[in-house]
Amino acid sequence: MRFLIPFKKYTLDDLPTHPVNVSQLRHTTRILIVDDEPFYNEAPLRAIGFNLTVKNKWDNITDAEPFHIIVSDNRGVASSFSSAAEGAFVLNQIHKNYPQKGCIIYSRSAIDFSHTPLLRGIKQMKKNDDSSEWEEVLSETINEIYDPKSIWLKIESYLEEQNISRKILRNIENTYVRALLKGNGANIEWSRQDWDLSSEAINLVTEFFKLATTALGVLGA
């Protein structure tokens, strides 16, 4: 916990920069892999500590809820959805509804160019990429979803899309930075009236806060 200056408006620049301890977080970061065929790199990734759950198809977008990172094949996994874009469509919907989660799509062949707009903010891999390449991308994704500064930029982007005023954004940024400096981001209490946010927005921002607090807890900050 740090001593905070009364009445000061804290910003992202006031947060210290710490490298995320990826090697420690990989054990507790839940990763969902969806593939209608065996995922070739499952065993080597488990062997180095990644926490993987594998299923063979998507039943619903809410399948993603318990996980931090979502990895999906592009083909043969989304028959319950009425989109020709298959895995690209599912990950697009997950990215929209759960922006705090990391999303990765992979395919044996090139993904249809017409589906490219669906993949904004989603990493792409080849099905035959080796385990070292998967380790690198998964580690990079863990860093992104837990890094407190990256998290604020995602919160800010999400709230801007909800047409939240700059004044309220700056107040929330101040609250976010103060909470993390004090070490109580996971327990922050939101007032819908104070922030003029929907219940959905409050819940999502709170989830972002928990991720940031988890990372700082691992860092001992």
Essential attributes:
single chain, 221 residues, alpha/beta, five-stranded parallel β-sheet
What's the SSE blueprint?
Blueprint: H1 22-25, E1 30-34, H2 42-47, E2 51-55, E3 69-73, H3 87-97, E4 102-107, E5 123-126, H4 131-146, H5 148-161, H6 166-182, H7 192-195, H8 199-219
Parallel strand pairs: 1-2, 1-3, 3-4, 4-5
Protein name: Response regulator
Organism: Duncaniella freteri
Word description of this protein:
The protein has eight helices and five strands, in the order αβαββαββααααα. The model has no long low-confidence stretch (mean pLDDT 85). The protein has 221 residues and is of the alpha/beta class. The chain has a five-stranded parallel sheet with strand order 2-1-3-4-5, sandwiched between helices. The chain folds into two domains: 22-146, 3-Layer(aba) Sandwich (Rossmann fold); 147-219, no CATH class. β1, α2 and β2 form a beta-alpha-beta unit.
